[in-house]
Amino acid sequence: MKVPPARADAFAKAPPDDIRAILIYGPDLGLVRERAEAAAIAIAGSLSDPFNVVEFTPSALKDEPSKLTDEACAMSMMGGRRVVRLRDATDGVAKAATETLAATEQSGDGALIIIEAGDLSPRSKLRALFEKTDGAAAIACYMDEGAGLDDLVRKSLGDAGISATGDVVSWIAGNLGSDRMVSRMELEKLTLYAAGQSEITLEDAQAVIGDAAAVTLDDVVYAATGGNLKGLTVALARARFEGVASIAILRAASRHLSRLEEAVAAMTGGANPDSAMKTLRPPVFFKQQNSFRNQLQRWRPQTLSRARTELIQAEIDCKTTGMPDEAVCERALMRLAAMAGARVPR
Asked: Where in the chain are the domains?
């Protein structure tokens, strides 16, 4: 069965009794791990129980092809239900998973099997197996964005007894990376920084939030929309090194263009650049105000509209054409830089 996104967290925290195996997969590996650990704790009570939790990778199946089935069908020495975690899985374990699901269906009991994988296409054999087999479930883990990130911020702050205005929550969400684990680490730093306070201010957030992914995304986006080809080349290289997804880059650029459009519209109505920037929520980070002000002079409503169309088409191409995502993303951003009046700083 497919687990709907809205039910994914609740499902992982309390797997139904009739579920024998769960596939947790997707590009957000931090969220994959978080949900896998939640499911394991729900069944075994602890991740460190040596009797009821066993963990291995696909390399172990090369020497022992039956290891997954053997572990899934083994009884607990200390009582209770066991958990078998197979990490870093690919379609190469589909045959072993098929055999294990068949064996556990016949036995009627056994461990909860948790298979963790990266991004799997709709044609994935492993994904299809878990989506179509009774007693198995597939949970997709996609990058946090939009309302999902806002909810994560609010919950993390709320759990620490700290509140924040909507503008501050939006700023924090907009400056977190798209990986759940990295985002939680940043939020933990923020709550520690604000220990003893009842409310997080924008200044608090700006003093703490700034993980590598967010900083790198800003570097890429500001270079592209500022017409800085040299800076864009360097920032894209860093983004690839840090593993930032091309889709995340394209969406960050799209969000930035939306803010430029809003400010440019205010200027068209008679506002000066500084006044136009002040209307934005969340506000422009003070270290980026000069660059943003410069971009307001470069962009016009028509070119902003064309740029947004360019980014939308690039995301579609990433998902449908089979072309390398990095090449599609780089081409789209280079075109943005050209629209901005590309220049190479001396």
From this structure: 5-140, 146-208, 212-339
- At what angle are helices 180-193 and 29-44 packed, to 10 degrees? 80
Looking at domain 146-208, does it have CATH number 1.10.8.60?
yes
pTM score above 0.70: no
Q: Which CATH class is domain 5-140?
A: alpha beta
- Token pair 């506002």: residue: 271
Beta bridge partners of 88: none
Widest pairwise Cα distance in the chain: 76
Assign a CATH topology to domain 212-339.
Zinc Finger, Delta Prime; domain 3 (1.20.272)
- Spatial strand order of the sheet with 112-117 comes to 53-56, 83-89, 112-117, 21-25, 136-140
- Which three-class secondary structure state does DSSP give residue 87? strand
**In this predicted structure, what is the pLDDT of residue 108?**
58
Share of the chain above pLDDT 70, in %: 93
